[in-house]
From TrEMBL:
Regions that span the bilayer: 20-38, 50-76, 88-109, 121-144, 156-178, 190-212, 233-259, 279-306, 318-335, 341-364, 376-398
Coiled-coil region list: none
Membrane association type: Multi-pass membrane protein
Origin species: Kurthia gibsonii
Protein name per its UniProtKB record: NRAMP family divalent metal transporter
Keyword Iron-sulfur found: no
Main location: membrane
Annotated localization: Membrane
One Pfam assignment: Nramp
Keywords of this entry: Membrane, Transmembrane, Transmembrane helix
Length: 407
């Protein structure tokens, strides 16, 4: 009889668990670090200069509280977001799923466009051709039986590459770090729209649920998984935060020198101003990696919101994900990218967050959903803070944008 090495078996389980946790963290992080992320951060840094550091700080705090609540409630209940919503109020899960899926599709059109722009900057390919090739690359991942593992690894590799390249560019622009640190705590300018957009683009819409749903699919559920859930959610926000800060510093270094950014592609002009042609190529790599991982994350999470509604959806999940990506690419190729979608999509997603998080906070206090689990008061309070603040700021932003459109 063959002997089983318990130490090796335990070690393998730990490695597998660590891989899943990192995969979930990077799936959430790379889903949020898309073309919109690069565009939003560049535009707001140009507008607010060093004071944008304060916006980043506030948005990161809101992000952490939102993610720790959402991921924990999902894993403790063992239910996906739409299932929890339906238990809180019958039919609410279907409404939430529709908002998430259509929001994810709109985002994905922008993601595909961003991937095309990335290959254009990196290799000089036509944007449409680059978008089509990027969509095919994303589709190939889901043709494999072990698609989830490949997705995890791709997210981790892409995230690492983006951070290293962004760090190099940030150092190269020699930003006024001292002023950035001071203005992060004592800002001279403040933009509510920037806060709503950043939070919406980081943990709004489908992004809120990306990591939590990935952990469920990996079999992680119950109160015993709480420590791992905390680590994974904080890691995801940390990766996003590091990338946001590095891009902020890179842009600040360029605009502080009086460089005027290009209106049609402000992020690209930052890299080109800092490092010339090489910088433009680096921008292409970062843009493509950010976009294609967001294409994968948006498709995977959006479909995870409808897979529980019918057994055939779950059975053919990968093929539906492939169709989702293909439709996103076809819409972009035939219609084009909507004007300002990369900035406004984050703000619109920010409006979904209060609804989704508010629903989950109600659910976590229902025994029929979470059993005897007691949610920490500090998480409930901070969660309510996010719901109220994002609901209020989101409403103010929506009214402001409608008034601007009517002028």
């Amino acid at each position: 009889m063959e002997k089983v090495d318990l130490h090796t078996q335990s070690s393998t389980k730990k490695k597998a668990g660590a891989s899943v946790l990192l995969g979930a963290a990077f799936l959430m992080a790379t889903s949020s670090i898309g073309p919109g992320f690069l565009t939003q951060t560049t535009i707001f840094t140009d507008q607010l200069r060093a004071s944008f550091g304060f916006v980043i700080l506030i948005s990161l705090l809101l992000d952490v509280f939102a993610q720790m609540n959402v991921w924990r409630i999902i894993v403790v209940s063992g239910l996906r977001g739409q299932e929890i919503a339906n238990k809180v109020l019958p039919g609410l899960g279907f409404v939430l799923a529709i908002l998430i899926v259509f929001g994810g599709l709109a985002f994905n059109i922008g993601n595909v466009a961003g991937a095309g722009l990335g290959l254009n900057a990196m290799l000089g390919l036509d944007v449409t051709t680059g978008a089509a090739l990027s969509a095919i690359f994303a589709i190939v991942i889901f043709l494999f039986k072990e698609a989830s593992k490949i997705m995890d690894r791709a997210a981790q590799v892409a995230g690492g590459i983006m951070i290293l390249l962004m760090m190099y560019v940030a150092i190269s622009t020699a930003p006024p770090v001292g002023e950035a640190v001071i203005r992060t705590f004592v800002p001279t300018e403040l933009s509510i729209f920037a806060i709503v957009t950043l939070v919406g683009g980081t943990v709004g819409g489908y992004i809120t649920f990306a990591g939590g749903h990935r952990l469920l699919d990996a079999g992680l559920k119950g109160t015993s998984a709480i420590p791992e859930v905390n680590k994974s959610s904080i890691t995801g926000i940390a990766v996003t935060g590091v990338m946001r800060v590095l891009l902020f510093l890179a842009v600040l270094g360029v605009v502080s020198q009086g460089v005027k950014l290009a209106a049609d592609n402000p992020a690209a002009s930052v890299f080109e101003s800092a490092l010339g042609t090489a910088g433009f190529r680096i921008f292409g790599v970062i843009m493509w990696a950010a976009a294609v991982t967001s294409v994968v994350g948006a498709a995977y999470t959006s479909v995870s919101f409808i897979k529980t509604f019918h057994k055939n959806i779950a059975k053919y999940e990968n093929w539906i994900i492939i169709a989702f990506i293909a439709i996103s690419a076809l819409v972009f190729i035939s219609v084009g990218k909507p004007v300002n979608v990369l900035v406004l999509a984050g703000a619109l997603n920010g409006l979904i967050l209060p609804i989704a998080l508010g629903t989950l906070l109600i659910a976590v206090h229902k025994k029929s959903i979470v059993g005897n689990y007691k949610h920490p008061k500090w998480l409930t309070i901070t969660g309510i803070l996010v719901v109220v603040s994002m609901g209020t700021l989101g409403y103010m932003t929506l009214v402001e944008q409608i008034q601007l459109l009517m002028k």
